[in-house]
Amino acid sequence: RPALLDHAGLAPTDRPMDPVTGFSALSLPTARVLVLGSMPGAASLRAQQYYAHPRNSFWPIMARIAGFDAASPYGERVHALTRAGFAVCDVLRSCVRSGSLDSAIQAGTRVPNDFASFFAEHPGIRLVCFNGAEAQQSFARHVLPTLGVEGVRFVRLPSTSPAHAMALERKLSA
Asked: Which of 69, 89, 119, 164 is the most exposed place for a label (fewest CB within 10 A)?
C-alpha cells in the first residue's frame, strides 16, 4: 500500500517540524513560588492560555491550593493565582516539536527563557516547582549552570498533563 503524501509530496513523518514559541510569564513582582512547565501543548497554543487542555489538572490543583474557582474565566484564574503569590512560566522560550508531548521535542532545539532577568524582577521567589520531568531536566541543563540564585528551593512535581496517568488527588498531594 503506498504512503499517503500531502500537497507538498511529503509523507507525514518526512515533514519538517515547525518551531514552537511559548508565552510570557504570568507573574507579579511579589511572587514567591514559580511553577515551571516545559512548553505549552497544542491545545494551550491554540487557546493562547497556559494549561488549556480540558483534562490537564493544573487549574483544578492550583484552584484548590490558592482558593479560587477552577471553572472561572482564564483571566480571573490568572489574577487569583498571581495574587496568591504564584508565577507561571515555561523553561523553554522555543523548541521544535511535533504535537504536544515533551518526548517529541527535537534534540538541540531547546531555547530557554531568560531566568536571570526573571529572578532579578521577582526577588521574592523562594520555591521553584517543576511541572514534570522535562521541565526539571531542561532547567538543569540549559538554565541552572549559568543562573546565580541563592535561597531558592527546587522541587519536581508530577506533570499535570493528561499524558501523565496519575489520579488528581495524588498529583495534588505531591
From this structure: 69
Cα–Cα distance for residue pair 42/1, rounded to 1 Å: 31
Residue at 93: amino acid letter: R
Neighbours of 35 (CB within 10 A): 25
Give the DSSP H/E element, type plus range, for residue 85.
none
Contact criterion met (CB below 8 Å) for 63 and 76: no
Query: Contact, 33 vs 125, CB < 8 A?
Result: yes
pTM: 0.83
56 and 162 Cβ atoms separated by less than 8 Å:
yes
Segments in 34-131 forming alpha helices (H)? 42-47, 58-66, 74-83, 115-121
Which residues partner with 92 through β-bridges?
112
Q: What is the dihedral of CA 47, 117, 59, 97, to 10 degrees?
A: 50
pLDDT by position in tens, the chain (length 174): 344 433 444 444 444 577 888 999 999 999 999 999 988 888 998 999 999 999 999 999 999 999 999 999 999 999 999 999 999 999 999 888 776 666 667 788 888 999 999 999 999 999 999 999 989 999 999 999 989 888 999 999 988 886 656 566 776 777
**Cα dist from 143 to 46, 64, 91, 121, 136, whole Å:** 27, 30, 8, 16, 10
